[in-house]
Design brief:
Distance between the termini: 43 Å
Low-confidence stretches: 151-162
Order of helices and strands: HHEHHEEHHHHHEEHHHEHHEEEHEEEHEH
Oligomer: single chain
Largest sheet: 5 strands, mixed
Number of helices: 17
Helix content: 25-40%
Radius of gyration: 22 Å
Strand content: 15-25%
Number of strands: 13
Mean pLDDT: 93
Length: about 400
């Protein structure tokens, strides 16, 4: 297939060929987005908007963030919990029904394995934490410490984070699936016993590592449409050997179809249910952790768009800015903006704006200005201010007033 067809398949799989709702987005609209992307990555950076809210805005337009909050951190008989936190691509919100796949052994133990020795050497601490969470949860790590008589001294030798041993053990238990996030206060994780958060039938389902890998790769293929094996592997961060075996089995089962994409250096696989949109129209701002673009090599291969997150780059060495959103217009990445929500001043600040080579700057500026105003309204900000940095900034500033 041509690279253009592959690009349209990928955009359709991620929901960008679907029209945005004409009215207020509902839980049904959120469910449709989740059926496509399969997860929402969590990240602590809040310079513009939390990462788990942004992909929904990119696909639905302005919506109430309470939709995501209720889906992830609330439960009732009428509106059951849809999402649960776990390590997927990175820390993510994943569908509740997918929990057994992540606990199947298909994924390698994550970074929390570094806390295994602490947990093994401190069985009493583990027991005490579980007892406190069982009695008082959902509860934060700081409150757990206060509930434990005498507290625990903080240490500074844990990957540079100022985490106490209580927090480390809590994260170990989270990684092992014993604890999960019952709720959040702001962005603080409030731990609860997983057995109180997830339905018994979900917890009771047992999945072999091989089946777990097949189902995760199949979900990745649904979300990506057409992808190389490393693309599929990266979506849930599977081990190479697990991913390759799962891809082979899914090809044999007729779920994946091997394809060659012109210009792609590696073989690719198309999910048999993936459709080819005739065209992709519309606009969207994509946060750095949007699943359409989070794998940077794939982004460059599909869109010809070189993109790197520069949060950890010293300010003087940044090329495009601190927290840069690529701008998608009619199925192409045509520009990028460094955004900051200045909540105190009520301003969405465009700290830099750049057009891609060959882009229609006048049209890009008009469409981008409209999307920035929509984002500002969504975030409860009064106006958009454009700083004079980047080749797109002068034109954007003129139309964004």
């Amino acid at each position: 297939m041509s690279a253009d067809v592959a690009r349209r398949i990928a955009l359709g799989a991620q929901g960008f060929a679907d029209p945005r709702p004409t009215g207020e987005p509902t839980r049904r609209h959120l469910a449709k987005v989740l059926s496509r992307v399969r997860l929402l990555q969590l990240d602590s950076v809040n310079v513009a908007v939390r990462a788990h809210y942004a992909p929904v805005f990119s696909r639905l337009g302005p919506y109430s963030p309470a939709l995501v909050d209720e889906a992830a951190w609330a439960h009732s008989a009428r509106r059951p919990r849809m999402l649960v936190e776990y390590w997927a691509h990175e820390a993510s919100l994943v569908p509740v029904e997918d929990w057994p796949l992540f606990r199947s052994g298909a994924k390698r133990q994550g970074w929390w394995k570094g806390t295994t020795a602490l947990a093994a050497s401190s069985p009493r601490l583990v027991e005490d934490i579980l007892a406190v969470v069982g009695e008082l949860g959902p509860i934060g790590a700081g409150a757990i410490e206060k509930a434990l008589a005498g507290g625990v001294a903080r240490r500074r030798d844990h990957w540079g984070w100022n985490w106490s041993e209580v927090k480390q053990v809590c994260e170990y238990l989270f990684g092992e699936g014993v604890l999960t996030t019952g709720s959040r206060r702001g962005f603080e994780r409030l731990y609860d016993l997983t057995e109180r958060v997830l339905p018994a039938e979900v917890l009771a389902r047992r999945v072999s590592p091989e089946e777990g890998a097949r189902e995760l790769v199949a979900r990745a293929a649904t979300a990506l449409g057409v992808a190389t094996e490393p693309d599929l592997r990266d979506y849930y961060r599977l081990a190479p050997e697990r991913s390759r075996q799962a891809v082979s089995e899914l090809v044999e089962a007729g779920v994946l179809e091997p394809v060659a994409v012109r210009g792609w250096p590696a073989p690719a696989y198309r999910h048999v249910a993936a459709r080819v949109p005739r065209q992709v129209v519309g606009r969207a701002l994509l946060c750095p952790f949007d699943p359409l673009i989070w794998e940077r090599a794939r982004t460059e291969r599909i869109f010809g768009f070189f993109y790197r997150i520069e949060i950890y780059v010293p300010a003087a060495k940044r090329v495009h800015g601190y927290y840069v959103f690529p701008f998608l217009l009619d199925g192409r990445l045509v520009g990028r903006v460094d955004l900051k929500a200045d909540r105190a001043a009520g301003v969405l600040r465009v700290q830099a704006a750049y057009a891609e080579p060959g882009a229609d700057v006048a049209r890009v500026a008009v469409e981008l200005a409209g999307e920035l105003r929509a984002m500002a309204d969504w975030l409860g900000l009064e106006r958009v201010d454009v700083a004079p940095r980047g080749d797109l900034a002068p034109t954007l500033a003129a139309v964004a007033r």
